[in-house]
Amino acid sequence: MKIKKLSLGQLGTNSYLLENAHELLIIDPAGEPQRLMAEIDVLEKQPVAILLTHAHFDHIGALDQVRSRYGVPVYLHESEHDWLSNPALNGSKYFPVEEVICQPADRVLKAGPLKIGSFNFDVIETPGHSPGGVAFIFADIKTAVSGDSLFKSGIGRTDLPLGDYDTLITSIKEKLYNLPDAYSIYPGHGPETTIKEEKMSNPFV
Questions:
Q1: Which has the closest alpha carbon to 186: 3, 2, 29?
Q2: How many Cα atoms are found within 13 Å in the side-chain-facing hemisphere of 78?
Q3: What band does 143 get if pLDDT is binned at 50, 70 and 90?
Q4: What does the mean pLDDT of the chain come to?
Q5: Boundaries of each Metallo-beta-lactamase domain copy (predicted)?
Q6: Cα separation, 27 vs 23, whole angstroms
Q7: Taking a C-beta distance cutoff of 8 angstroms, is the pair 179, 143 a contact?
Q8: The total number of structural domains that make up the chain
Q9: Which residues on neighbouring strands pair with residue 155, listed in sequence order?
Q10: Domain with 160 in it: what CATH number?
Q11: Nearest to 9 by CA among 34, 44, 41
């Protein structure tokens, strides 16, 4: 499996494309839909799903365009299904951007193993930055796509609607930090890191 990162939109949000021999997973279609779809088409793989780590506006800016183009289902934690169509909840109401309103998600993400097409991975719940935040764990490549929970030398903000600092720290310590030290972290913003590096040097945890 290969993973490709694209930094998209006004906030430089990371979108990820995970590809195996024949299929593609799209994680957090953040913005710049034409650029994102061009990158997808270059890979010449069949998209099978769009996964959302959470439903803040900067992670869903290209959602409807990408979903419509490829006809794939959208997976999102049930705590945030209302957020896609609500600019006050997804945060776009409070930023100098066009309000983001998307169609409903198609599937509910829950903690545990998940198989989509030929992809097998685990979902862990990492609330705090938002109530329905999740991370996707790909054991075969020792990688976690962590959304806006854990960054390189940082953590997600908790001052947006329903954010909670103590909950986020608990999610990091009890969920992400239980992964093996060698696991790579692919965050919602900024560069990659590892569990070991963050355990040793993250000043917020």
A1: 3
A2: 3
A3: very high
A4: 97
A5: 12-189
A6: 13
A7: no
A8: 1
A9: 150
A10: 3.60.15.10
A11: 34
Give yes or no for residue 81 having a pLDDT over 90. yes
Q: Is a pLDDT exceeding 90 seen at residue 58?
A: yes
3-state secondary structure labels for all residues of the chain: CEEEEEEECCCCEEEEEEECCCEEEEECCCCCHHHHHHHHHHHCCEEEEEECCCCCHHHCCCHHHHHHHHCCCEEEEHHHHHHHHCHHHHCHHHCCCCCCCCCCCCEEECCEEEEECCEEEEEEECCCCCCCCEEEEEHHHCEEEEECCEECCEECCCCCCCCCHHHHHHHHHHCHHHCCCCCEEEECECCCEEHHHHHHHCCCC
Rounded to 5 degrees, φ, ψ at 163 are -75, 155
Q: How far apart are CA 142 and CA 193, in angstroms?
A: 12
Q: What is the largest CA-CA distance in the chain?
A: 43
Please state at what angle helix 63-70 crosses helix 33-43, rounded to 10 degrees.
40
Angstrom distance (rounded) from CA 98 to CA 18: 29
Joined tokens for residue 166? 């103590």
Provide the pLDDT for residue 161: 86
Per-residue pLDDT, 134: 98
pTM of this prediction exceeds 0.90:
yes
